[in-house]
Amino acid sequence: MGIGNTLLLSQCTAYLLALVLSFFMAVPMGQNQRNFDGKCLLYARGTWSVNSTSDVGWKMDITYWGSQSVCNYSIYMGIVTMIVAFVQVVRTSYFLYKGLDSSFLDAFVSFVVNFILTTMLFTSALIVTMGLSAWCQEVTQHISMCEEAQYSSWLNWKGIDTSSFYIQLGMVQFGSWCGWVCWLIATMLTGLRVYNYHQREDILRSLQREKDRMLGTNTEQRPLLI
Q: Which residue of 94, 123, 146, 184 lies most exposed, with the fewest beta carbons within 10 A?
C-alpha cells in the first residue's frame, strides 16, 4: 500500500471513530436535558438549606440554570460532526475501494473543514468540562462526591430526575475530548496530504523547468544548416 493510500486509510479510521464518538455528545446531552425538564445543568448555581426529608439532610434550591445555548452547542456539535464524519467515511471508503486518490482541491477543502470543526469541538469540550466542574462544586458542598449525588434525592425542584446526570455529562465530556483528538488527527493527516500535493507540484514544476532548460540547451548547441 502506497503512502497516499496509507494516509487515506488513516483518515477513514479517524473519521469512523469520530462518527461513533459524536453519538456520545448529542445523545447523552439530549437525555440529560429531558431529565431536567429542558433545563441546562452546566454552570447552574444553587443554595443549600437544611431539610430532614432529604436523603442527605439538605436540599438545594436552584438560583439559576445554565444558559440553554451552552447545552445546545454541545448537541449541535455532536450532530454536525456526526454528519460530516459520515460523509467523510463514505468518501474516503469509496476512494479506497476504487483505488483512487483525492485531488488537491478536495484535500484542501477537507483540511479547512476539519480545522474549523476541530477548533469548534475544542471549545465545546472546554465548555462541557468547565460547566460540569462548576456544577459539581455546587453539589459537593454537602455531598461528598459529585457522582454520588445522582443516587440521592436532594434537589428541590419538581419535574427533575437527577439520576444518571453525572454519567450522562461524563459521556458528553468523554465524547467531546476523544472526538476532538480524532478530528485533530484527521486535520493533521489532511494537512499532510495537502503538503504532499504541494511538494509534488513543486517537483513537477522543477522537472518541467529542467526539461525546458535541456531542450533550450540542445537547440542552442544544434549546428545551423546552410
A: 94
